[in-house]
Write a structure and sequence with these properties.
The protein is an alpha/beta fold. The chain is built from 13 helices and 17 strands. Bound molecules: iron/sulfur cluster.
Length: 449
């Protein structure tokens, strides 16, 4: 039982690091607390509760988490401080020793975070630090469909991962793959429609693995969501290449609302490195998937994650990866330098890449990415496109995205409040001043708000 009277008039500060999934979860916790009467502390206001949702993808992320905890404790003396997320799961003792931290909740406890918080907050003396369970015991699923401040909703469809890539700590931090039922996700999408939502991004750790828990499949989920009237756009945040089936690609190409937009982690374009990483595919499979997408959706935007400088990536392996990416018809590269994580089996690989080489490789790939994105945008100049615009501060240009994820800019002089969350048909003009978007040449309102 949650004693809501204890929360009336209280203020909370939130801090999130890491992936879309974390942001989505924090936003859901915020919504739950606001239903209990807790307001979000504005800049300069003291918070009674601080909630920090952490990430542990790199050493830098761990460091940022510790800094954020110290800062929030310092800025909000006496506040009840809750730390959750991947770093909390992996280093609960370290975090519980930080002065001012009241509660450390691991991934399994996330599903009952508000109850734990309530118990600890109501009787702080009894609110000892809650230690995390072992990875094997992470079985709960914290549902989340959040809007945040943006036009789009983030619907968490899956959590955890069974893949154990050699460089990754996520399976330890978030547990094994699990998912809620299709029926419950459809219900959340319908709720988003009632709140005026038009676009939903499906989030998760290894989304393509959806269905193991409920004996359903990801394609079935996609079909069920596609039938939810009122949602005009779905995007899938990321899909492992080996789980991106031809059936899914073909369905999305003909679907009502799944956008021609993919985000696929490649990590390396060298088969030697892919083997060292224990990835579940080789570069041929990856290339086949890209060709298939382009065959049925020639204008699809394809973002690709690449990790540079992981152990075992010799200069020859990197050149292979670079040439492979150059040859592929993809739109953007998300480049991450490899970071050593304690407890991962990648640490057993003897060949280590220097920081200087990692920087140089990242730089080359980012340049390649810019060339590809620029060419993709350029091909769309003069074409008609449907854009979903997002709210902008008064006096600033408005931005939105086309179906195939081209960022579009409407100058401040033409921006209107009523265009927010509105589908508009536009003719795409040339690049904006910093080349991060295409300008609108002309527009017309398409849908009702
Ligand atoms: S697929 Fe690999 S990289 Fe992705 S979360 Fe699972 S173990 Fe980590």
């Amino acid at each position: 039982m949650i004693d809501s009277s204890a929360f009336q008039g209280k203020k909370a500060a939130y801090f999130t690091l890491g992936c879309k999934l974390n942001f989505s979860e924090t936003s859901t916790f915020g919504k739950m607390l606001s239903e209990l009467g807790v307001q979000t502390a504005q800049k300069g206001e003291l918070a009674d509760i601080c909630l920090i949702n952490t990430c542990s993808v790199t050493e830098v992320a761990d460091h940022k988490c510790r800094q954020a905890i110290h800062r929030l404790v310092r800025q909000n003396p006496g506040a009840f401080v809750v730390v959750t997320g991947c770093y909390a799961q992996l280093e609960p003792l370290k975090i519980s020793k930080i002065e001012g931290v009241d509660l450390v909740l691991g991934s399994n406890e996330k599903a009952n975070l508000i109850q734990y918080l309530s118990d600890g907050f109501v009787n702080r003396d009894a609110g000892a630090n809650y230690k995390t369970e072992k990875t094997k015991d992470i079985k709960s699923f914290a549902p989340s469909c959040s809007r945040g401040n943006r036009t789009r909703y983030f619907l968490k469809v899956q959590d955890g991962c069974d893949y154990f890539c050699t460089y990754c700590t996520i399976p330890y931090a978030r547990g094994f793959s699990r998912n809620p039922s299709i029926a419950s996700l459809v219900a959340q999408a319908e709720e988003a429609v009632r709140e005026g939502g038009k676009e939903i991004v499906l989030t998760g750790v290894n989304i393509g693995d959806f269905g193991k828990t409920t004996d359903e499949s990801f394609v079935d989920l996609v079909k069920a969501l596609d039938a939810v009237e009122g949602i005009s756009r779905y995007r899938i945040s990321s899909l492992e290449p080996d789980l991106l089936s031809d059936e899914l690609i073909d369905y999305c190409a003909k679907s009502r609302a799944f956008m021609p937009h993919y985000h696929i982690p490649l990590q390396s374009g060298s088969d030697t490195v892919l083997k060292l990483m224990h990835r579940h595919y080789d570069r041929q499979l990856f290339a086949d998937k890209i060709h298939r997408i382009k065959e049925v959706m020639p204008d699809a935007f394809i973002g690709v994650d690449v990790m540079v400088g992981c152990r075992g990536e010799t200069p020859e392996c990197f050149e292979e990866c670079f040439d492979f990416l150059k040859s592929l018809d993809v739109t953007q590269l998300h480049v991450f330098p490899y970071s050593e994580r304690p407890g991962t089996s990648a640490l057993k690989i003897p060949y280590v890449v220097s920081d200087a080489d990692k920087r140089e490789r990242s730089h080359r790939l980012l340049e390649l990415s810019d060339e590809k994105t620029h060419a993709f945008y350029e091909r769309h100049i003069g074409k008609e496109a449907e854009v979903l615009f997002e709210k902008a501060p008064r006096g600033k240009a408005m931005h939105g995205f086309t179906k195939n994820y081209i960022r579009v800019e409407l100058p401040a002089s033409e921006a209107r409040e009523e265009y927010d969350n509105q589908l508009m048909t536009v003719r795409l003009g040339g690049f904006n001043h910093d080349k991060t978007a295409l300008k609108v040449e002309s527009l017309e309102v398409k849908g009702e708000k």
